[in-house]
């Protein structure tokens, strides 16, 4: 299968390396020092059970628009959610007046990416996705470290026979590439479950500049994490999604027992990059407010982090 991967950070590079190793064609879209490094030297990825050190093909977003669409079967979006609107506009321009377009798979944080994409692109070609049980980030340009199994869940936003067939094929491709993948008929529920994990640890780890293990094995801090996760489940009710206490407990145990990792927001703080506060935290606050409720854990942690990081 032929893939275009938008974003060559930790997740994008991991998926790309696995797919290339399995014999698939992959082109990366990157920017800045990462793009420069990928074009000048090999991509190096270290994982406890997998290593990759090869030259890869990479372009910037403007260069990729000159390539024929039929060269790709799928476009994987692995950028920050803060880039979704800009990418949607780029893809809309690229796809204009084209009868056949590749499927778009979002592997981003947050629960609003697919809605943003669907306002600019054919909804039947948009696949929502998420990965869990993985930590992956850039150590230095073109050098990636990763840990975990990268369990992946995919689902169509608007199911059709065509995208069902594509999803089944993609599932086989990912599984063969040692990316354990399953298909969900209710992907929005899975996206909110992932947000429960993200809101639970991302902002608090970034604020305290600690890995997940330090937070989860601290008696008092772990209770704050549970409060953050519970507020996310309350927020989900505004979208008609009911996530039980048992499910929250399972996800809390998952984080506690998983490898101690740096969540993406902590990595962003360390590298002075834009934070996904709106996409991970504000969405929880707003969906609680829509029910006449507050989200005091989320509001407190995200407000302090925003002040400390942005001084506003």
Automatic annotation (TrEMBL):
Residues 4-158 form the Ketopantoate reductase N-terminal domain. InterPro entries: 6-PGluconate_DH-like_C_sf (IPR008927), 6PGD_dom2 (IPR013328), ApbA (IPR003710), KPA_reductase (IPR013752), KPR-Related (IPR051402), KPR_N (IPR013332), NAD(P)-bd_dom_sf (IPR036291). Coiled coil: none annotated. It comes from the Bacteria. Keywords: NADP, Oxidoreductase, Pantothenate biosynthesis. GO terms for cellular component: cytoplasm. It is an enzyme of class 1 (oxidoreductase). GO terms for molecular function: 2-dehydropantoate 2-reductase activity. Residues 186-305 form the Ketopantoate reductase C-terminal domain. Its EC number is 1.1.1.169. Pathway: Cofactor biosynthesis; (R)-pantothenate biosynthesis; (R)-pantoate from 3-methyl-2-oxobutanoate: step 2/2. It catalyses: (R)-pantoate + NADP(+) = 2-dehydropantoate + NADPH + H(+). GO terms for biological process: pantothenate biosynthetic process. Catalyzes the NADPH-dependent reduction of ketopantoate into pantoic acid. PANTHER family: 2-DEHYDROPANTOATE 2-REDUCTASE, PROBABLE 2-DEHYDROPANTOATE 2-REDUCTASE. Belongs to the ketopantoate reductase family. This is 2-dehydropantoate 2-reductase. It comes from Arcobacter aquimarinus. The lineage of its organism: Bacteria, Pseudomonadati, Campylobacterota, Epsilonproteobacteria, Campylobacterales.
């Amino acid at each position: 299968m032929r893939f275009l991967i938008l974003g060559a950070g930790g997740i994008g590079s991991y998926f790309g390396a696995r797919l290339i190793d399995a014999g698939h064609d992959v082109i990366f879209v990157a920017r800045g020092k990462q793009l420069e490094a990928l074009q000048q030297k090999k991509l190096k990825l270290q994982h406890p059970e997998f290593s990759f050190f090869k030259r890869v093909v990479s372009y910037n977003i403007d260069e990729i628009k000159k390539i024929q669409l039929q060269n790709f079967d799928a476009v994987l979006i692995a950028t920050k959610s803060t880039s979704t609107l800009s990418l949607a506009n780029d893809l809309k321009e690229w796809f204009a007046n084209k009868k056949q377009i590749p499927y778009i798979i979002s592997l981003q944080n947050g629960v609003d990416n697919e809605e943003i994409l669907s306002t600019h692109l054919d909804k039947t070609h948009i696949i929502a996705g998420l990965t869990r049980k993985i930590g992956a980030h850039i150590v230095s340009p073109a050098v990636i470290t990763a840990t975990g199994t990268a369990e992946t869940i995919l689902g169509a936003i608007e199911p059709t026979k065509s995208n069902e067939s594509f999803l089944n094929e993609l599932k086989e491709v990912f599984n063969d590439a040692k990316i354990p993948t399953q298909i969900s008929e209710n992907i929005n529920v899975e996206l909110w479950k992932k947000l429960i994990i993200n809101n639970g640890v991302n902002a608090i780890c970034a604020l305290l500049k600690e890995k997940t293990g330090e937070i989860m094995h601290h008696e008092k801090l772990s209770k704050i994490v549970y409060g953050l996760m519970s507020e996310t489940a309350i927020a989900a009710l505004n979208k008609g999604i009911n996530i039980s206490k048992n499910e929250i407990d399972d996800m809390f145990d998952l984080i506690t027992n998983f490898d101690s990792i740096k969540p993406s927001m902590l990595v962003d703080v360390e590298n002075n990059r834009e934070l996904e506060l709106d996409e991970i935290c504000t969405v929880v606050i707003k969906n609680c407010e829509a029910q006449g409720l507050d989200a005091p854990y989320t509001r407190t942690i995200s407000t302090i982090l925003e002040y400390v990081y942005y001084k506003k």
